[in-house]
Amino acid sequence: MARILVTGMSGAGKSTLLAELARRGHCTVDTDHDNWTLPDGLWDEARMGDLLTHHDDLIVSGTVENQGRFYPRFDHVVLLSAPLDVLLERVATRTGNPYGRAPHERAEIRRHTAEVEPLLRRGADVELDGCRPVTELADSIEGLD
C-alpha cells in the first residue's frame, strides 16, 4: 500500500469509504474525528506530520484548508466526487455526522462545491466517482501503488 489522502466535499462518501478500508484491515484516519481538526478548521499540523512520519501504509480522509501542505508526503491524493444533488441528499439523511442539515450548512456545501472542489481536483492525481459502490471504490484505492 502507500500513503493516500482521500478528500472531497461533505457527502461524497469519504467516511463510508474509510470504514470499508478499515474493515479490510488498512490503517485509516478520518480527520473529522478524534481532534485531528483544530477549532479553526485546520489540521493539527504537528500531529499530522507525526502521523505521516511514522506510517508508510496509511489512508487519511478529510478536507481542510491546510491539507495541501501535506500533499508532498502522500503517494496519492484522491478526490472523491459526486453531483451536488447527491451530496445534499446524503448529508440530509446520514446518521454519523449532523453537518449539512441546517440551511446555512447546505449553502456552505453549495459554495464549497463551486469554489473549493475545483481546487481539490487540481491537487488530486486520482478522481473517483463517489456514486460507485463502496466496495468498488475500496478496490480502486487498494489498486493504487
Decide which structural class fits the backbone.
alpha/beta
Number of domains: 1
Share in helix: 40-55%
- The CATH H-level superfamily is P-loop containing nucleotide triphosphate hydrolases
Overall spatial form: globular
- Uncertain stretches of 5 or more adjacent residues: none
Structural notes for this entry:
This protein is an alpha/beta fold and 145 residues long. The protein has one domain: 3-Layer(aba) Sandwich (Rossmann fold). The protein is 41% helix and 15% strand. The chain has helices spanning 14-23, 45-54, 84-93, 103-115, 117-123, 134-142, and strands at 3-7, 28-30, 58-61, 76-81, 126-129. A 5-stranded parallel sheet has the order 2-3-1-4-5, with helices on both faces. Helix 2 (45-54) links the parallel strand 2 and strand 3 (58-61). Helix 1 packs across helix 6 (134-142). The longest helix has 13 residues, at 103-115. The chain is globular, with a radius of gyration of 14 Å.
What attributes characterize this protein structure?
41% helix; 145 residues; Rossmann fold; alpha/beta; five-stranded parallel beta sheet
Can you describe this structure in just a few lines?
Helices cover 41% and strands 15% of the residues.
Describe the SSE topology.
Blueprint: E1 3-7, H1 14-23, E2 28-30, H2 45-54, E3 58-61, E4 76-81, H3 84-93, H4 103-115, H5 117-123, E5 126-129, H6 134-142
Helix pairs in contact: 1-6
